[in-house]
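thread from #wetlab-drylab

HS: before we spend reagent money on co-crystallization trials with uridine-5'-diphosphate, can we at least see a predicted complex? here's what I'd submit
DV: go for it
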Amino acid sequence: MESNGAAAVHQRHGLRHVLLFPLPYQGHINPMFRLAGVLHSRGFAITVFHTHFNAPDPARHPDYRFVLVPDGISGPSPVTIEDRFARVIWIGDACEAAFRDRLAAVLQEYSRDTVACLVVDTHLLEIFQVATSLSVPTLALRTGSAACFACFLAYPMLCDKGYLPVKDSQLDLTVAELPPYRVRDLMHIGEAGHHLMCQLLARAVAAVNISSGLILNTFDALERRELDRLRRDLAVPVFDIGPLHKLSPDGDSSLLRQDRSCLEWLDAFPPESVLYVSFGSVAWMSPRDLVETAWGIAGSGVPFLWVVRPGMVSGSADDHRLPEGFEAATRERGKVVAWAPQEEVLRHRAVGGFWTHCGWNSTTEGICEGVPMLCRPCFGDQMGDTRYVEHVWRVGFEVGGDLERGSVEAAIRRLMTGEDGAEMRARAGELKKAAVDCTGEDGSSRMAIDKLVTHIMSL
Ligand code: UDP
């Protein structure tokens, strides 16, 4: 077992331990570490179990203890969408035996009564099962929206009713049982991957059902109706304690080095003039879409900061190279980085729009800064998040279909300088206020954290 110097601190008399096990992907690690920050500030000692794959850096969290759980993951990253989801399912299984040993050792080392609970990502079913078998109470962290988890719960019903597997002829059909989703907005990966998706979501629901509660990185003013629905449909308590990055702002858990030079670069631009473009840590685009995106951005005339992550473009190793002539054409008003300090970028006064893939973290990070969005969902819950951004909160709109430079240009102008773009910005500003309120003294998320802490102490 690996540990750092924090172990001695953790053994202080009376300290309660919260153990955590994130799914090892950026969009899952970030909220788990933010939750760790919240619980640590409430007096809990933190122990993080983690895989070799996408391991966090213990040096950045000197107050926490880290326990490595060998995962046996090797070889190249999965390429197909089915393989990506299959890996998510496989991780819990791959870690199960080693985790059992590590958890037993931790329980022996800490006095058993001092371990309050283990918080686990909903996708790691085997980890919940091991903890339960060793009498450790679990809490489930789901890193997507409440609406998305309602979709997980409804999946068998949606299959029975014929919405799933998705048929091309039904893409625009409204899902009457789960408004405002249309069939195209549901989590799906086509007919071939249908069983895999059913398995993935059923496992997450099973994990929540054997846990002592569900923690969601959302907030009441954003998803009240969806939270009510979950509370009605689940037997375990639901804690809506987001936006976690606002409640625990110092938890740097980035797996890639953030290029901070872009913050200084932004300083030179007027307020709300720059479009920030980033598609998160996993989403990909075709080489053709990269070229059309590049020339669309160039043609819009709008200043931009663009995250072009290595590996973001499907194809050969150096395929993320931008088209010839792009850099020269945009040098005066554009910057491209491999990875950005996204929260700080979105907070920067110069940023006036966010072209995003609508991962849940990016969506909430944009909302919390009052930045309107262009949405280009790629897979998973991103289509559903896009639906909420466009149709429910009305703080952005989708750039759909095959990308063409002309339509990209027009979409960017509409968002950044158009009349309805201004309306979206105004509504985003209202949501920003709601996010500030929910994290304030008597705010809904603060109160939910109080309840969560009381709940943890009672387990
Ligand atoms: N992120 C970042 N720098 C970047 C792009 C993304 O730090 O250049 C962070 C972003 O702030 C968010 C996370 O990576 O917290 C991505 O999570 P999200 O759920 O949006 O998407 P995913 O990567 O899981 O698809």
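DV: Residues 25-27, 30, 254, 278, 280-283, 307, 339-340, 342-343, 359-362, 365 surround uridine-5'-diphosphate (CB under 6 Å).
HS: ok that's useful, forwarding to the group
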